[in-house]
Design a protein that fits this description.
The chain has about 475 residues and is mostly beta strands. It has 4 helices and 39 strands. Strands 2, 3, 4, 5, 8 and 13 form a 6-stranded antiparallel beta sheet that branches. It has a 4-stranded antiparallel beta sheet with strand order 11-10-14-15, with no helix packed on it. The relative contact order is 0.12. Residues about 15-55 have low confidence and may be disordered.
C-alpha cells in the first residue's frame, strides 16, 4: 500500500510575515480595502464597449488601466498594491511562451501604509492571476527575465516605503475575457485587483456540488470524443472529457493535490478508469494543481473508456478526507448482474479479491498469442478494507499455475484489454475496483490455479476448469 500524498502535504498554510516577528497562527482571512473595478484599455485604443456589448477577448499589446491615469489598487492593513499597466507578449527576453500561451507582464507597486516593515516570503504562494473568474494561474519562472522583476523568494517593503516590480504569468493566447490579480494574506487581508474585462457567467453544473471539509466539486459538462486534437482513441474506445469546477473551502489554506492520481472514473459495473494525459487538451488539470481559498478553479480531466459502457461516476479520494463522488446521470446503461464469484481471496486487514469470470481468446486487439497458445482472461473484483489507496503490483502479485509451471501476466496484452489491471493500478480507500488480467496458456491445458501474493498473505486456489470450448471473445 502506498500513500503518495499525506493530509498535511495537501494543505498548505498561507502566511505573509510582517514586522520583525513571525506569527505561527492562521487567522481567518479577511478582504480589506476596496479594489477599483476599472476596465483595462489597450494604449491608444478606443474606449471599451458599453456594458451590453459582448466582452472583447484579450490580444497582444500594452494595456493601461482605466482612464485619465487611474490605476487598479487594493489595500490591506499594512500595504497598498497598485497596478497601472500590463503587457501581453509571445516572448519575454530570450524566452518563448509555451504553445497556445502568452506572457502577461504586470507592473506592480507595493506601498507600506503601516509603521513596521511588510515581509512576504515566497511571493508565488500569495500572488495569483485569476483568468475568466475560474482559472487561477501562478507566477511564471519568466518573472526573472522581466524588465524589472519582482522579488519572488521574499518581498520586503520597508516602513513607509515603496517597492516596484514586474510579475509575469502565462495565460492562454486566445479567448481570455477577464483577468484579476489576487494577493492572499491570511493575517493582514487579501487584495483583489480587476485588470481586464468581466468574467463570463458560470454554466449550471450537471452533477454536484459535493464536497468534504476540504474541497467542493461540481461537474460542469461531460462529452465523449473519438479524438482530441490530433490524438485518436484506440479502436473500441473513446475519450471521456469531464469539465470540473473545484474550490478549496479553507479560507487560509492552499490545497495542492494531483487529480491525475486521486481522481477515478468508474462505471456501474465496477470497472475503473484513470486520468490519461492528452497533448493538446486545453485547460487540463495536471499533477501541479492547486486550489486557492474560496476561489473556483475550472479545468478538464480526460479518461480513456470503452465506447460501450455503463453509467459513470467520478470520485476524488484525498488521503485523510472523506471521498467525494458525483454520479453522472444519463451517462450509460444500468449495471449488468455480475453473478456469484467463482472464488475469493481474503487478504487480512487489506482487501478481498474475487474472480468473477474467465474466458479464453485467440487474440486481444492487435495482439495474437504465440503458436500453440491462447489467452486466458480473468475478471477480478477488489474490495478495499483500508483508509488509503492500495497500489497493486500486477506482475509481482498475480500468477497463473499450470501444474508446476508459473505463468506471469502478459504485460503487452494487458494494455489492449478494455479494463486491464495495469501495473501500479490503485484500489480506492474502502472502495471497489474491477479489472481484467490476461495470461498466455497452452491450448490443450484446462486446469489452472491462481496464486495471489497478497500484502499479508500468499495463497493458491484452483480455478474452475476452462477448456478450449469455453473460448470467448474479448475486445
Amino acid at each position: 500500500m502506498h500513500n503518495h500524498q499525506s493530509r498535511t502535504d495537501i494543505v498548505s498554510a498561507l502566511l505573509a510575515t510582517y514586522g520583525v516577528t513571525i506569527s505561527r497562527e492562521l487567522p481567518r482571512a479577511a478582504l480589506l480595502g476596496a479594489c477599483l473595478a476599472i476596465s483595462a484599455t489597450p494604449a491608444g485604443a478606443a474606449p471599451p464597449p458599453g456594458p451590453t456589448s459582448p466582452p472583447a477577448g484579450l490580444t497582444a499589446g500594452d494595456y493601461t488601466l482605466g482612464q485619465a491615469g487611474a490605476s487598479a489598487s487594493g489595500t490591506n492593513r499594512l500595504a497598498k498594491l497598485t497596478v497601472a499597466r500590463f503587457r501581453v507578449t509571445a516572448d519575454l527576453g530570450e524566452q518563448h511562451a509555451p504553445p497556445r500561451h502568452a506572457f502577461l507582464t504586470v507592473s506592480t507597486e507595493w506601498r507600506n501604509v503601516g509603521s513596521i516593515k511588510y515581509l512576504v516570503p515566497q511571493v508565488n504562494n500569495h500572488l495569483f492571476l485569476v483568468i475568466d473568474g475560474n482559472r487561477p494561474a501562478t507566477l511564471s519562472d519568466a518573472t526573472g527575465v522581466a524588465p524589472h522583476p519582482l522579488a519572488i523568494d521574499q518581498l520586503l517593503v520597508p516602513a513607509s516605503g515603496t517597492v516596484a516590480g514586474d510579475a509575469v504569468f502565462e495565460i492562454p493566447d486566445h479567448g481570455v475575457t477577464s483577468l484579476e490579480l489576487l494577493f492572499i494574506d491570511s493575517e493582514q487581508g487579501d487584495m483583489r485587483l480587476p485588470l481586464f474585462g468581466h468574467a463570463p457567467p458560470e454554466p449550471h453544473p450537471i452533477a454536484g456540488p459535493a464536497g468534504n471539509e476540504l474541497v467542493e466539486i461540481s461537474i460542469l459538462g461531460l462529452r465523449e470524443a473519438a479524438a482530441v486534437g490530433g490524438v485518436h482513441a484506440p479502436a473500441g474506445q473513446t475519450y471521456a472529457l469531464i469539465d470540473l469546477k473545484m474550490r478549496a473551502l479553507s479560507p487560509g489554506n492552499l490545497v495542492r493535490f494531483d487529480p491525475t492520481m486521486y481522481s477515478v472514473l468508474s462505471d456501474a459495473d465496477g470497472y475503473s478508469y484513470h486520468v490519461t494525459q492528452i497533448e493538446g487538451l486545453e485547460d487540463e488539470f495536471t499533477a501541479a494543481t492547486q486550489l486557492l481559498p474560496l476561489i473556483p478553479s475550472r479545468g478538464t480531466l480526460a479518461y480513456l473508456i470503452p465506447v460501450s459502457h455503463s453509467a459513470l461516476t467520478l470520485a476524488i479520494n484525498l488521503p485523510g478526507y472523506k471521498a467525494v463522488a458525483l454520479a453522472l446521470a444519463n451517462s450509460g446503461a444500468a449495471a449488468a448482474h455480475a453473478g456469484k464469484p467463482l472464488l475469493s481471496f481474503e487478504d487480512p486487514d487489506t482487501l478481498t479479491l474475487s474472480v468473477l469470470g474467465l474466458n479464453r481468446a485467440a487474440s486481444i486487439g492487435s495482439n495474437s498469442a504465440a503458436a500453440g497458445k491462447e489467452y486466458l482472461i480473468l475478471d477480478l473484483l477488489f474490495v478495499s478494507k483500508v483508509d488509503d489507496g492500495i497500489e497493486f503490483q500486477t506482475a509481482e502479485q498475480l500468477f497463473l499455475l499450470n501444474g508446476q509451471d508459473q505463468i506471469a501476466v502478459d504485460s503487452d496484452a494487458i494494455e489492449a484489454l478494455p479494463h486491464g489491471l495495469k501495473e501500479s493500478s490503485v484500489i480506492p480507500p474502502h472502495g471497489q475496483a474491477r479489472f481484467q488480467v490476461i495470461y498466455q496458456v497452452p491450448k490443450a491445458a484446462a486446469h489452472f490455479t491462481l496464486r495471489y501474493r497478497g500484502f499479508n498473505s500468499d495463497t493458491k486456489k484452483a480455478l474452475p476448469d476452462v477448456s478450449t470450448q469455453d473460448r470467448g471473445n474479448s475486445q
